[in-house]
Amino acid sequence: MSIPKNTALILIDIQKGFDDIAYWGGERNNPDAELNCRKLLDYWRAHHMPLFHIQHCSVNPVSKLAPSNPGNAIKDIVAPIADEPVIKKSVNSSFIGTDLKERLDTQKIDTLVIAGLTTDHCVSTTTRMAGNYGYTTYLIADATATFSKKGINEEPYSAETMHLTALAQLKDEFATILTTENILALLES
Predict the structure, then answer these.
(1) Are 52 and 9 in contact (CB under 8 A)?
(2) How far lies 114's CA from each of 43, 100, 155, 160, in Å?
(3) Under 8 Å CB-to-CB from 90, ≥6 apart: which residues?
(4) Which of 33, 51, 142, 171 measures 20 to 30 Å from 163, CA to CA?
(5) Per residue in 94-103, pLDDT tens?
């Protein structure tokens, strides 16, 4: 498997509002997701590869991710520098209501590496659309995380269960699922 040097890193919604675990469900998996996102970001920066920060700007004024709330800010660990593009969105997909696809197509990018928050919402929706648009898509399992959820009868589902089932739904149909170590090794080969 060969990874093109113009592969784009898409970092989705790594925002301070997600630090309020109680607000999002009470439990979160993969506490190292942001550290792994930073490893990816460091590699992309060091190799001058294309990358895009995605920032969720909720239209709900009480949301932790609303532009008027401090939780809207991208976490310091992956904060954009210099002229790194930040694409603001207000729905689950990084492609809806943004110019992400146009930017990728203009730069003739056909391979994406996706990481960020949360696995079963914006990461999943963006990954599904990337696959449907025909991009070769890699989703980095240990550079994503999510929160616990309640089912239709209020039954509890752990954050890890939500994470793993979201990855299972995307695997092979929409994306190749890898770890941070896997993708960095592929990029070096």
Answers:
(1) yes
(2) 14, 13, 30, 19
(3) 56, 57, 58, 59, 97
(4) 51
(5) 999 999 999 9
